[in-house]
Amino acid sequence: MACALFDSGATRSFVSAMFARTCNLLTQTFAQTIVVSIPDGSTITSTHILKNCPLTPKERLMEVDLIVFDQLEFDVILGMDWLSKLCVRIDCRSKEIIFDSPARKCIVNDATAYLAFIVENYGGNKENQRIPIVEEYPEVFTDDLSGLPPDRET
């Protein structure tokens, strides 16, 4: 079991080198050194990655690529690459992570899934559609509006 941090401020996901060694996880070498800025303003480097590492939060098997770093306070830091890919929402009040996508649950269970959306087509004059109030009453404003009405006595 790993001590993980779900970090919406991290662009990528990371694993501590010590945790990777302890778990006998096989890492691969990058073609070039990766430099990462950390919150205190300094940078750290890595030359290794753990590809397709299996994770099982909430009893669901998922994979993540983890950049290996020597000094991390956590075993694993899951960043936005993993959080956004799996539609994860962090609920700070209840201190839990939520997998938001019901469609993804269907797909994981080998069900057929369809993505559909409806676009309402407003007919009428396209010039008038750019004016918010005019958009609501296209039958009243059928001609192009030239500007404000002339001044008149009250």
From TrEMBL:
Matches recorded under SUPFAM superfamilies: Acid proteases
Domain of life: Eukaryota
InterPro entries listed in its UniProt record: Peptidase_aspartic_dom_sf, RTL1-rel
Pfam families tied to this protein: RVP_2
Gene3D superfamilies, alphabetized: Acid Proteases (2.40.70.10)
Annotated protein name in UniProt: Uncharacterized protein
Native species: Juglans regia (English walnut)
